[in-house]
Amino acid sequence: MEHLSDRMEFAVDLCHAAGDVARAYFANRATLVVDQKGAQDWVSEADKNVETFIRDRIGHTWPDDGIVGEEHAPKAGTSGFDWVIDPIDGTTNFVNGIPAWTVVLAGVSGGQTQVGVIHEPNVGETYAALRGHGATMNGATMQVAAGVPLDSGTVSIGYSNRVQAAHVLPVIAAVIDRGALYHRNASGALSLAYVADGRLLGYVEEHMNAWDCLAGQLMIAEAGGRIEDQDADAMIRSGGRVVAGSADVFDTLVEIADAAWSV
To answer: Is the separation of the CB atoms in 46 and 70 below 8 Å?
Structure first.
């Protein structure tokens, strides 16, 4: 696929611009229109409008590319390259004034994620990965944690209304039983970025949508971590489970997930 480096540069710049748009809404939350899609599942006018902003920029620069986003209908492309958008990952945090939310953009071709960007506007951190070229945070190379066992680190465990609440409890218990700390910040994408940057040891969630996880999974793999083998196009269609982590803990996290979800 030609122009991957160009798409990477474009994605970083676009996430910065979209982050500025989102922060303007965040600063004026008192007037924000918020709807409920389901239990603990929120969408605001900021989500919808930031996604429209991103789509318009993509359509202008890469008119033949496909677009898949959380808030609007997919747009088919002819180039073989698809953009996957989460305009605000961590909407629950966003609408409640918690500054842990991100703008997420992934680029997919040939069933693989090629480009991934996760931008956290409130702290000015931008995580990025290009397949085969490593992963960075604000331009500095990222590396997953090395030589850190479970009982010396922290694992993030995601949960949403797409799965039964009872399914997450044994995962939390198993992680704690092995001496790890348990982390959840309501932004799966940000947690995956933290794994890539060595801040967390791993991430486990029974079901994630593609716009939440593809960028972060690429970052972890490019930062020397391990992820489960998945087809990105299948994830776009249906989503799926996510287990990712450093080489020291990945196999154990897979065992925990398999045991909890009877795989």
So the answer is: no
Predicted TM-score of the model (pTM): 0.94
pLDDT beneath 70, residues of the chain: 1-2, 34-43, 263
CATH number for the domain spanning 56: value is 3.30.540.10
Q: Crossing angle of helices 250-261/165-177, nearest 10°?
A: 140
Domain total for the chain? 2
Residues 88, 182 share a domain: no
Please give the pLDDT value at position 58.
98
Distance CA 148, CA 167 (A): 27
Task: Judge contact between 142 and 136, C-beta under 8 A.
Answer: yes
Q: Please report the pLDDT score of residue 42 as a whole number.
A: 44
Q: What is the pLDDT of residue 248?
A: 97
> Which pLDDT does position 47 carry in this prediction?
85
How far is CA 221 from its chain centroid?
A: 13
Q: Which residues does 150 contact at the CB level (< 8 Å), separation at least 6?
A: 175, 178, 179, 180, 201, 248, 249, 252
CATH of the domain at 235: 3.40.190.80
Look up the domain containing 71 and give its range.
Answer: 4-141
